[in-house]
Specification:
Layout (H helix, E strand, L loop, with lengths): L27 H9 L12 E2 L12 H13 L12 E2 L6 E8 L3 H6 L5 H6 L2 E5 L6 H6 L33 H6 L6 H4 L3 H6 L14 E2 L12 E11 L2 E10 L5 E6 L6 E3 L2 H4 L3 H4 L6 H11 L5 E4 L2 H8 L1 E2 L3 E3 H4 L10 H9 L13 H25 L2 H17 L13 H7 L4 E5 L13 E5 L3 H11 L5 E7 L5 H18 L1 E5 L7 H9 L4 E7 L6 E6 L2 H11 L3 E2 L2 E2 L1 E3 L9 H10 L6 E5 L5 H7 L7 E5 L12 E6 L2 H11 L7 E4 L4 H7 L18 H8 L6 H18 L4 E7 L2 E3 L2 E3 L1 E7 L9 E3 L1
Parallel strand pairs: 3-15, 3-26, 5-11, 6-10, 10-12, 13-14, 13-15, 23-30
Antiparallel strand pairs: 1-2, 4-29, 6-7, 6-9, 7-8, 16-18, 16-21, 17-18, 19-20, 22-24, 22-25, 23-24, 26-29, 27-28
Keywords: Exonuclease, Hydrolase, Nuclease, RNA-binding
InterPro entries: Nucleotide-bd_a/b_plait_sf, RBD_domain_sf, REX1-like_exo, REXO1/3/4-like, Ribonucl_H, RNaseH-like_sf, RNaseH_sf, RRM_dom
Protein name: RNA exonuclease 5 isoform X2
């Protein structure tokens, strides 16, 4: 069995507590994977990177979830579970973690002073909403205030998995297996991978450029629920031309092995991968069977309606250089959260209660692995998705990972096995200290911690100066700037006016029209640009006008760009926003929003149907660089709305796709995106009191006028402009591979709470190429 697609993360290296340059260590597991990945899909020099899109449906990330990410960044997958809300790839290539906290600021401040926050909005592609702050924000994101969990799991035997009967009952509807297959039993044909899925997961397919010399199995019969299943597993070695086949095992439904052949590669062997395959030079020397012999034998053995079953079967078929249309892949059948996969060894133990790939045996037994995948497929068909979901595989896997970690670190500390471990404890296990720079006078739990190097400063300027010197010396740093907030009443007023501004920017006036114009036709026309919140006929003018309020800013901008100065219903109309003091700078704001790093490379499309996703994925070869498809849903009905966002790797890919989708074959309307996903979630529900009839003037209250006249250095408006630039310069001085988070914690007062905002990125981050679909 080939090594599975799981990566062991790097631990921050142990060493001196201070004055130590950051270090990167690639572990033994990484070196092993580097060997077997030679050839096909050989990676370039890896860089740590974040997923293209967040998993949080409402784009809000809790303080506990932030703590998950920070712990994972320190210890990696081998010690703590992966974060549940985003993906951090190649964690072992991270060099440092730096967290900037802008105390006294919120999401409201960021968008109120959006133009002033020039660097932050352009440099950080990943943005998310934070809940209103607690009494001790820093302690929460570091994990200091979590209650200690019971240690029952850590006391369980290491060779067994915990019983699901003792676990808290989970909501089965949230289980990814139930979400994909439903709760009722499924038939065999439902378990087959579709052609679309096979393309997504890199299965060899006819017509693919990289499969030109592959041999088809000629199995093209009609598949039924009684079609025969065959378990397949292959072992490979690394040759001068990449990975090549060294053993194939094929097992029939009854469990009998119908084919078990050693294969001599055509090219010089560089690495036998004996620890995985069990094959050595001595074993392979007398073998005369070649790949073409195996291909011929397999074609003769398989009936026309044969279904192949395997684990990461795409790799086996590519090693065989064969194409087969009917497959069940147990690594995809047993669906896991966030696109991850369970290992075959784990599924065998958790589902079947059997131990395979035992450490005291040299290499994997290909026949045993093939037979196991067959049994797993049969179990799924016999008991159905609900039975699988009740086993709570995700919790079992996390438990097993924690036990493995506990075995490694038992002589050091048992604390990592607990889900409530703090970031400080993780660093302490690695012999590292956390740097905390602050100007806050009060002493927090964080500053009094044993392995926290706290530097208290007299001003934000001093914090900045110390950060330049100290950050390179620590693997993990928290830099806290403190700003004087607005008064609670002024903040509330600013919140209302901010929402009004976005409403007015999403509103257009169109006209004049003739008095006998076709209102239905006009409504269809304006609705083609995006969802309409309201449309009103304005009769105060000599000729009728329309006032259209859109749900999204992109729709309003698209209507202006498409119809202003165009002949409609026999009249040349003007389409424009209402002119108020809140919209005077809207053209500048729209241009800057389009340049926002989160919007750059994202396009907005209107007029999409419910089958749009299927059509898009079927022709994905036309849309190179597609990373994510965001399909908004109606909150009440749950139906997909008639607009979407497509996120691409870069601006050029987005522009090419936009040209195609607006062409005659697709006939969609669209433009480059203006509003990040987290902003949609914030503005989605506008309270009635925050709206006003367009055109009514809002005069800034005297208190704000006075505040703006008496701006101080630490006032949020000046801070946004000045400190955004200063943090930008500091960010540019950080080394490659630094995970950087900018956190605006939010504000809390007697007038209410205001959500925070998070921005994150990795210095010199490598872009993702795996598409995601978000509903």
């Amino acid at each position: 069995m080939e090594p599975e697609r799981e990566r062991t993360g790097k631990h921050f290296k142990k060493g001196r507590k201070r004055r130590r340059a950051p270090n990167t260590l690639v572990g033994a597991a990484e070196a092993m994977r580097a060997r077997w990945e030679l050839g096909e899909r050989q990676p370039e020099a890896k860089k740590a990177r974040l997923s293209a899109i967040l998993f949080a449906e409402n784009c809000e990330v809790t303080h506990d979830q932030l703590c998950e990410l920070l712990k994972y960044a320190v210890l990696g997958k081998s010690s703590v579970p992966k974060p549940s809300w985003c993906q951090l790839f190649h964690q072992n290539h991270l060099n440092n973690v730096v967290v900037f906290v802008l105390q006294g600021m919120s999401q409201l401040h960021f968008y109120r002073f959006y133009l002033e926050f020039g660097f932050l909005r352009k440099a950080f592609r990943h943005k998310f909403r934070l809940p209103p702050p607690s009494s001790n924000f820093l302690a929460d994101i570091i994990g200091l205030k979590k209650k200690q969990a019971t240690r029952d799991q850590s006391k369980m035997g290491e060779g067994s998995l915990p019983s699901t009967s003792s676990k808290v009952r989970v909501n089965l509807q949230n289980d990814p297996i139930i979400q994909k297959y439903g709760s009722k039993k499924v038939c065999l044909t439902r378990c087959l991978l579709t052609k679309e899925e096979m393309k997504t997961f890199h299965f060899p397919l006819q017509g693919c450029p990289d499969c030109a010399n592959f041999v088809p199995t000629k199995c093209n019969g009609s598949i039924t629920d009684n079609s025969p299943l065959f378990g397949l597993d292959c072992e490979m070695c690394v040759t001068s031309k990449g990975r090549e086949l060294t053993r194939i095992s094929l097992v029939a439904e009854g469990g009998s092995c119908v084919m078990d052949e050693l294969v001599k590669p055509d090219n010089k062997i560089l690495d036998y991968l004996t620890s995985f395959s069990g094959i050595t030079k001595k074993i392979l020397n007398p073998v005369t069977t070649r790949l073409k012999d195996v291909q011929r034998q397999l074609k003769s053995l398989l009936p026309p309606d044969a279904v192949l079953v395997g684990h990461s079967l795409d790799l086996d078929l590519r090693a065989l250089k064969m194409i087969h249309p009917y497959v069940i892949d147990t690594s995809l059948l047993y669906v896991r959260e966030q696109g991850r996969r369970f290992k075959l060894k784990f599924l065998a133990k958790a589902i079947l209660g059997k131990d395979i790939q035992c450490p005291n045996r040299l290499g994997h037994d290909a026949t045993e692995d093939a037979r196991t995948t067959l049994e797993l497929a049969r179990y799924f068909l016999k008991y159905g998705p609900r039975k699988i979901a009740e086993l709570n595989l995700e919790a079992l896997a996390s438990h097993q990972e924690l036990l493995a970690t506990g075995q490694e670190l038992r002589n050091t500390a048992e604390v990592v096995q607990q889900p409530n471990t703090s970031v400080l404890e993780c660093l302490d296990l690695m012999g590292q200290k956390l740097l905390f720079l602050t100007r806050e006078p009060e002493t927090s739990e964080l500053s009094s911690a044993r392995n926290c190097e706290t530097v208290k400063c007299l001003s934000n300027k001093e914090v900045l100066e110390q950060a330049r010197v100290e950050i390179p010396l620590f693997p993990f740093s928290i830099v806290q700037f403190s700003f004087e907030p607005f008064s609670p009443s002024l903040t509330e007023e600013m919140n209302k006016r901010m929402r009004i501004k976005w409403t007015e920017m999403s509103t257009v006036y169109a006209g004049p029209f003739s008095k006998n114009c076709n209102l239905r036709a006009l409504k269809r026309l304006f609705k083609s640009f995006g969802p309409i919140r309201s449309m009103t006929l304005v009769l105060e003018t000599h000729q009728p006008h329309l006032c259209i309020q859109y749900e999204v800013l992109e729709a309003a901008q698209l209507a202006i760009e498409s119809l202003d100065g165009v002949l409609v219903e026999g009249a040349c109309i003007k389409v424009q926003r209402p002119v108020t003091e809140l919209t005077l700078d809207c053209n500048t704001l729209v241009n800057e929003l389009e340049q926002d790093s989160e919007n750059r490379g994202t396009i907005y499309l209107s007029g999409v149907s419910e089958t749009f996703k299927e059509h898009l994925l079927q022709q994905s070869n036309l849309f190179l660089g597609l990373e994510a498809v965001i399909l908004p849903k109606d909150l009440k009905s749950g139906k997909q709305k008639r607009y979407c966002f497509l996120k691409f790797k870069n601006f050029g890919s987005a522009q090419r796709a936009l040209d195609i989708l607006k062409g005659k074959d697709w006939k969609l309307k669209g433009r480059h995106a203006l509003t990040p996903r987290h902003l949609h979630a914030w503005l989605r529900g506008l309270p009635p009191e925050s709206r006003r009839p367009p055109g009514i003037r809002v005069i800034p209250p005297p208190s704000e006028q006075q505040a703006l006249q008496a701006l101080k250095v630490d006032h949020p408006k000046i801070a946004a402009w000045r400190w955004g630039r200063k943090i930008g310069k500091l960010y540019h001085s950080l080394g490659p591979g630094t995970l950087c988070l900018i956190l605006l914690p939010g504000t809390k007062s007697t007038h209410g709470s205001f959500s925070g905002l998070g921005l994150m990125g990795i210095k010199d981050e490598e872009e993702s190429t795996t598409p995601n679909v978000c509903l």
